[in-house]
Amino acid sequence: MGKGRAILLGGLAVAAVVAGVVAVRTAGFAPAGITDGGDLRLAATPPYDLDAAVRHLSAATQIQTVSHQNAAENQVAEWDRLHAWLATTYPATHRAATRTILPNRTLIYHWPGSDASLAPIILMAHQDVVPITPGTEGDWKYPPFAGTIAEKAVWGRGTVDDKGSLIGLFEAVEALAASGFRPKRGIYLVSGHDEEAGGSGAKAAAATLKAAGVHALYTLDEGSVVLRDTPIIDGPAILIGVAEKGYATLKVTAHAPGGHSSMPPAETGVTTLAKAVLAIADKPFPIEMRGPGAGMVEALAAHKGGTTKMAVANQWLFGPLLKREMAASPSSAAAFHTTIAPTMLEGSPKENVLPQTASALINYRIAPWNSSADVLARARAAVGDTPVKLEWVNPPNEPSRVSSSQSAGWKYIVAAARADAPDAVVAPYLVVAATDSRSMEPVSQDVYRFMPMHFTLKETAMIHGTNEHMTVDSFRRMIDFYARLIATSAG
């Protein structure tokens, strides 16, 4: 046998082995560690008046609990107005549960369970909303704080983020309380006053619960949805946030002599700063197929089948290709690495003055496998001996822990969601933004982030944007979901 023929046969043998391994791994591939709650028997949704619920969401939208960047601009009386309105609108809830209003106006409701040995549940939705961008008021189809009911939807700031959830929760609890439901497991409703401005209210609520010895079975807050046109499968998926990224902002400062711009030195404070910022941005964290993002891809790929399933099942061979696919767009890449985003620059107070200090802010969203220490170390390595100072603007929020996709809490949430979307794929999800729920880790076994609204990718763009609105259909799904979830997990 000639040498060339032997090499050819050897290559064919290797290819056959590789093909066999790929085929076997693909055939047996299934997402690891994800249960679907199919063994649970769901409680029925109690009767309620949907038209009245829609009017209630409209009324809540008209109460302008707007969290401004400068808290001095907030209309504090609007929070008091909301509290009074809740008490009037939901009398059965206020008879069944005790209400605590913290000094900062965060709310804690406690509906005691009949069995003190059972861990309670915590359900969350925040009271505040973001402002309208000045000058965009005319771009809204309906006034942003009118709560207009039109086109089978309620229109206005906060209808989705997060008063839809807040009012949906109260509608569900009111219907349960009015129907005579009595929970075995205690129920806590926690509503932060300033989620859109840092979440100090949720931190205070968590401290209050911890002092009371509360340790919940699970916490559920906002964070993800049922996505109708999910990438990879181009169909519906119940995406449940099991973790959220950390948050940190690094200040980079360059000092210089300053002076008149007509006589600039070879390097000014601005050019030094620019070099440092570019060095940091040019050393991104690598894309890694791990954590909740990888769990999501595995669940979707297993459902999709074909070459997609083959690639995900055989990352030992197709890993580089998958990483390139995930890195192809900022929205997909964000789930697979710590992101680096220079956002603000400050230099001279006048165009013809060389600055004595030039600074930049770089915002990081930290992946669950990284930490703020990793971020700072990477930034320092990137700038090397460039004469700049690196410091945190505020103490960083580290990434949350990753909650179980097999626990009792997970199964309750999945079962309640699948009742309304039986054909949807269930997948864990990494929330790339921040929610109040991160504060509940010390008082909860697991923390989940999910709202049962059915959205397309395009529709998610209205959150914090123009023409935010909650469809009546989504709102109905939300009330039904919360009622089923509470009655099943606390009943």
Taking the sheet with the most strands, its summary is:
6 strands, mixed
**Can you identify the CATH superfamily of the largest domain?**
Zn peptidases
Provide the number of structural domains. 2
The strand line-up of the biggest sheet is 1-2-6-3-7-17
Give the strand tally. 19
CATH architectural designation of the largest domain: 3-Layer(aba) Sandwich
- The first-level CATH class of the largest domain is given as Alpha Beta
Which class of secondary structure composition applies to the elements?
Answer: alpha/beta
- Count the DSSP helices: 14
Radius of gyration: 26 Å
List unreliable stretches of 5+ residues.
Answer: none
CATH fold group of the largest domain: Aminopeptidase
Describe the protein.
- The protein has 491 residues and is of the alpha/beta class.
- The chain folds into 2 domains: 50-242 and 402-490, Aminopeptidase, CATH 3.40.630.10; 243-392, Alpha-Beta Plaits, CATH 3.30.70.360.
- The protein is built from 14 helices and 19 strands.
- The chain has helices at residues 3-27, 50-61, 76-89, 91-96, 163-178, 200-211, 269-281, 291-304, 306-313, 315-326, 330-333, 372-383, 408-418, 472-490; strands at residues 98-101, 107-111, 121-124, 148-150, 153-155, 187-191, 218-221, 226-230, 235-244, 246-255, 259-260, 339-346, 353-354, 357-366, 389-392, 425-431, 447-449, 454-455, 469-471.
- Helix 7 crosses helix 12 (372-383) and helix 13 runs antiparallel to helix 14.
- The longest helix has 25 residues, at 3-27.
- The protein is globular and about 80 Å long.
